[in-house]
């Protein structure tokens, strides 16, 4: 089989326009199509937030809004490929059903109520400080332990390495010793 077999392949002949059917493979709609990333103002390199693999992503932004997320061919980890979850990660920031406000359900309550972020953060800080104070152990069975068993941390797969590092540092500074990550479980 010689090198000429490729030029005899019907698709190649159509696209080259050699057999009169080249235009049959095209339409006005096909000619009008443009890449989804063509009009982007900026492109940011990022890491997929779904698991511990760390696949590289290119995030395309136009007018301050994410318009497309694709695999980064320059990533030595994923070489431009994304799994189905990574391919759909644009929805994390653009889906209309995305929760954008803090909701709180009071103890024994049945309804969620909106809270402003500052109030929610103050509530969390107060509870962390109170729990640490109430459950602090300076010693255990004669050994100095300086810990609390009242606070634990479970990181999620949507946290990257840097975020997990900071979470571990925070929990360690609080004296928590039960720190794990869902991506490892």
Automatic annotation (TrEMBL):
One of its GO terms (molecular function) is molybdenum ion binding. The keyword Nucleotide-binding does not apply. Coiled coil: none annotated. It is found in: Cell envelope. GO terms for biological process: anaerobic respiration. Pfam families: Molybdop_Fe4S4. PROSITE patterns: 4FE4S_MOW_BIS_MGD (PS51669). Residues 41-97 form the 4Fe-4S Mo/W bis-MGD-type domain. GO terms for cellular component: cell envelope. InterPro entries: Mopterin_OxRdtase_4Fe-4S_dom. The keyword Iron-sulfur applies. Its cofactor is [4Fe-4S] cluster. Keywords: 4Fe-4S, Iron, Iron-sulfur, Metal-binding, Oxidoreductase. Belongs to the prokaryotic molybdopterin-containing oxidoreductase family. PANTHER family: FORMATE DEHYDROGENASE-O MAJOR SUBUNIT (PTHR43598:SF1), TUNGSTEN-CONTAINING FORMYLMETHANOFURAN DEHYDROGENASE 2 SUBUNIT B (PTHR43598). This is Formate dehydrogenase major subunit. The lineage of its organism: Bacteria, Bacillati, Actinomycetota, Actinomycetes, Streptosporangiales.
């Amino acid at each position: 089989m010689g090198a000429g077999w490729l030029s005899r392949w019907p698709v190649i002949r159509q696209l080259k326009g050699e057999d009169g059917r080249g235009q049959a493979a095209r339409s006005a709609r096909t000619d009008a199509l443009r890449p989804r990333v063509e009009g982007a103002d900026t492109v940011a390199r990022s890491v997929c937030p779904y698991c511990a693999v760390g696949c590289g992503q290119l995030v395309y932004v136009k007018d301050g809004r994410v318009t497309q997320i694709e695999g980064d061919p320059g990533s030595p980890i994923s070489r431009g490929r994304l799994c189905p979850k990574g391919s759909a990660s644009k929805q994390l920031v653009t889906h209309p059903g995305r929760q954008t406000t803090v909701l709180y359900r009071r103890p024994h309550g049945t309804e969620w109520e909106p809270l402003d972020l500052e109030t929610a953060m103050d509530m969390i800080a107060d509870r962390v400080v109170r729990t640490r104070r109430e459950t602090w152990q300076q010693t255990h069975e004669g050994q100095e332990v300086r810990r609390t068993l009242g606070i634990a941390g479970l990181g999620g797969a949507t946290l990257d390495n840097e975020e997990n590092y900071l979470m571990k540092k925070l929990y360690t500074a609080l004296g928590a010793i039960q720190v794990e990550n869902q991506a490892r479980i």
